[in-house]
Amino acid sequence: MKGIMMSAILGAVVLGGTESTLAAMSNPYGLVYENAITENTAGAVQIHPVQYQLHGINIAANVYTPAGYNASQKYPAIVVAHPNGGTKEQVAGLFAQRLAENGYITITADAAFQGASGGEPRHTDKPYYREEDIHGMADYISEYPGVDAEKIGVLGICGGGGYTLKAAQSDKRLKAIATLSMFNSGRVRRNGYQDSQLDTIQERLLKAADARSEEVLTGKIRLVGQMDFSDEAIAKLPYDLYREGAVYYGRTHAHPNSTFEYTESSLMDLMTWDATDQIELINQPLLMIAGEKADSLYMTQDAFEKATGTKDKELFLIPNATHIQTYYVPDYVNTAANKLVQFYGKKL
Asked: Using CA atoms, how far apart are residues 137 and 79, in angstroms rounded to an integer?
């Protein structure tokens, strides 16, 4: 169980974070990031909660439109995929809003089975569905009034970045591909963070298969990823990503729909998947952004090297930033946002 739990500490949490949870409840759109929209006003970026069906599952999303939006005009659009366990109201919403401030129509949706979206069993976290979430956002935004369907880009953050790399291999509607603090969920669930659990792969696969058997025979859903977010427990976590992630998701930017938990049976799919498998199929322009001091940087570097199908690619490091700091520290967010605006401006 320890091994499974350690490889699970990469999402979000419903416990703790009283101040931020109260902020989410007081914001009419549930947004918890800095300078979030509180009301739609003329002449400013506006947010539009929407819902749509994806393979029979109701998806909850937010669309952001630029200041002065006019449906009779044509705008480039960006699909934003959130981190593992995160929600559309956290860092994904922050970057969706920042891109809208620069003239893009953007969409970010809660993953199927997670957040405010539908799907049972809850907390299912399987790569197929996460990739379909990205295709589904592209479906929806391509028909949104004012969107130029020939100018759609994508931004994947953390786990959403890994799924973005996979979705972009086949979805050529996505003309410009960007990731921020990319996290390869398959590699970490299989090998452990920084490949620290190579000796327990078969044991964890067996537990995942047992969990699926229990679901079939009894209907009971096993969840993994439950965490103790006390100060003492956080201090004992072994990596910056774990410690800073616990504070971000559990306290400073907590959201009631955000949770570290996922179904143990999902590991059957996660552990046999990898964001870099067939990554050479990406032939679109590719920008990969990461913190210079992120202990997750090895995943971005690995994917970047393997992305041989595009000659138009750039690895951009934010000086002094760790993984989680790219989510909220103003200087690092500004650096990432400015780079993204420059990238999409040239490639879309």
From this structure: 6
